[in-house]
């Protein structure tokens, strides 16, 4: 079975932009499993000939839900179904209480989690934008610009051993 990689994080952190970069081909989109996956997009992708399945999680469909509740739900789903989790945070916005809560939840899983600080569009701003996120106490942070591509090669090379 192909490795399942789930993209999670607050709305607007850049999940779908990264999804599109990883997918590249239009025909990579696959049908979601009916029922469980209303707001999730699945794609069959590969990196250096290693195929894997990528899942993008969508926005909030329940108006009464809070953003943190929503992400908590997505995180629990990802912990259950995914093999690898890409948890995206927004480097321009900085660390948010919601990020801290979800990281605490993700710490409890045995599954591989990549803590990604997105919107780092150039190397010159990397250290400054990454700084607040070290407070999370995670071993590794992955600096990324899903939009411009900075850090993408490094991230995918980090993923490779799990594919
Ligand atoms: P999602 O809600 O997590 O799926 O986020 P989107 O991928 O829809 O992106 C939300 C907004 O952030 C859009 O305006 C994107 O253009 C922008 N964005 C995404 N990735 C980057 C990035 O690497 N750098 C910058 N500067 N903006 C980004
Ligand atoms: Mg999206």
Q: Report the order of strands and helices.
A: EHEEEHEHEHEH
Radius of gyration: 15 Å
Could you state the oligomeric state of the chains shown? single chain
Major β-sheet annotation: 7 strands, mixed
DSSP strand (E) fraction? 15-25%
Distance between the termini: 10 Å
In what order do the strands lie side by side in the largest sheet?
A: 2-3-4-1-5-6-7
- Could you tell me the CATH topology label of the domain at 91-150: Rossmann fold
Helix content: 25-40%
Shape: globular
Number of strand elements: 7
The CATH class name of the domain at 91-150 reads Alpha Beta
- The CATH homologous superfamily of the domain at 91-150 corresponds to P-loop containing nucleotide triphosphate hydrolases
Domain EngA-type G: 3-163
Function: GTPase that plays an essential role in the late steps of ribosome biogenesis.
Organism: Desulfobulbus propionicus (strain ATCC 33891 / DSM 2032 / VKM B-1956 / 1pr3)
Subunit structure: Associates with the 50S ribosomal subunit.
Core attributes:
binds guanosine-5'-diphosphate; single chain; GTPase Der; Rossmann fold; binds magnesium ion; globular; alpha/beta; seven-stranded mixed beta sheet
């Amino acid at each position: 079975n192909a490795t399942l990689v789930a993209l999670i994080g607050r709305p607007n952190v850049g999940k779908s932009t990264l999804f599109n970069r990883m997918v590249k081909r239009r025909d990579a989109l696959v049908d979601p499993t009916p029922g469980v996956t209303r707001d999730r997009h699945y794609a069959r992708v590969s990196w250096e000939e290693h195929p894997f399945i990528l899942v993008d999680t969508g926005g909030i469909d329940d108006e009464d839900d809070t953003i943190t509740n929503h992400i908590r739900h997505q995180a629990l789903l990802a912990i259950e179904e995914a093999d690898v989790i890409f948890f995206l945070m927004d480097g321009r916005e900085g660390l948010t209480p919601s990020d801290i809560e979800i990281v605490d939840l993700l710490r409890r899983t045995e599954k591989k989690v990549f803590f990604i600080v997105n919107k780092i569009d150039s190397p010159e701003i990397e250290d400054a934008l990454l700084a607040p996120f070290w407070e999370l106490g995670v071993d590794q942070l992955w600096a990324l610009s899903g939009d411009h591509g900075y850090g993408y090669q490094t991230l995918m090379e980090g993923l490779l051993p799990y594919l």
